[in-house]
Amino acid sequence: MAVIDEYDDHDALGLAALVASGKVTPGELLETAITRAETVEPAINAISYRHDDLAREAVAAGLPDGPFRGVPFLLKNVGVQLAGTVTSGGSALFSDAVADHDSDVVQRYKAAGLVIFGKTNTPEQGLAASTETVLHGDTRNPWDLTRTAGGSSGGAAAAVAAGIVPAAQGSDGGGSIRIPASCCGLFGLKPTRGRVSLGPDAGESWGGLGVVHALTRSVRDSAALLDAVAGRIPGDPYSAQPPARPYRKEVGADPGKLKVALQLAPLSGTPVDPECVTAAREAAQLLESLGHHVEEAMPPGDGEEVGGAVWTLVAANVLSALRRRATHLGRELAESDVEPVTWNAVVHARTLTADAYADALSVIHAQGRRMAAFHRDNDILVSPTLAEPPAPLGPQRMRNPDIEEYSAALLRFSPFTSLFNVSGQPSMSVPLHWSADGLPVGVMMSATMENEGLLFRLAAQLETAKPWFHRRPPASPPGTV
Asked: Which class of enzymes does this protein belong to (predicted)?
């Protein structure tokens, strides 16, 4: 079957339009994606599991006439289920956990016409900001193979940046869509808590911190993908108010004249690399040139208190998931089952009391109210997505037995993103800057709860003013053997 030469020239909606016009077939697009994966995978290691035969069967059976009919797509290897396949979460403990059903969001992806042919690499249990695992190996950044693609949706970001697919599913419990989007020069939006159902397997993720969406090359793909999967399922503990109109219609609409707060330092006080500060300042200047009003401001909150609450919620939920799996296997959870950082979460969780967990929930709910008050005077909060450009592989490996060294590397790298998992607000990383040595550096922009529409309007305005779709990783990036 023919490989499509113009595959890279189109985003996901563009490829779907080629299918709808009869210029290409879903089978041709799938085989092009498979060929691309086989070409670039030895270098980047973005995909944990390939499901080529399932995808071919879906194409042969006939695809729904959705907005993405025939477009190849990848799921993240944690948190979602595809019937008949393994979702390991990057953990050997789940390496034979075959799903007997599709997650609700996967059903919606299929109804949109997407052709799922694999799952992308993620650190164990999605716990890290770099995708480096014992089970599936390390994912490398297509822009520089010696550096991280980010995490925990690092495989998804690497696959999109390398041109395997134009969009891939991700999830974000502390920055896991926005971090890899920044590292790989992509657009990545974390939606409002409750916007996309986590059913039927979960009501919430990590105490409400985690959400599901995607990494894309274009703003309109992100908007249309959210249209395809947004909406509560009966029984969901959270639900966001439906948008006034489809998000796809927000792309290209006038965002108005916005009041923008510019944050250059995280609540933790972590130093920020000059490249990341430059990226945020240049974004602020661009926003001003577009007619928005920008003032430097610091959001409210105690970084240490909020960080402690996040760690409590994450650790407790990780222990719960691992213990349930061990019980299913008929044995006790053992240190040898997981990587050292994951085991550290287990050890911490076992020290927690019920009131400590309740206190942590109270902290994040209070922080959400503080952020809501902050946004009464600020439409948008802008900051660097990360405190460093894409970091070298190694220091953030979860198999690092030196937990203090690992934790320090994580905090140096990503001190900004988790604030918006805590508050539940929508937040996006926009690829507006590349460093002098050619590395992508994202800028984060966040809005009030349930206001993804404003973010899509603003992102589309920025995409027009400073386009990024044409940017591609070098053919022979640093680290090429």
From this structure: hydrolase
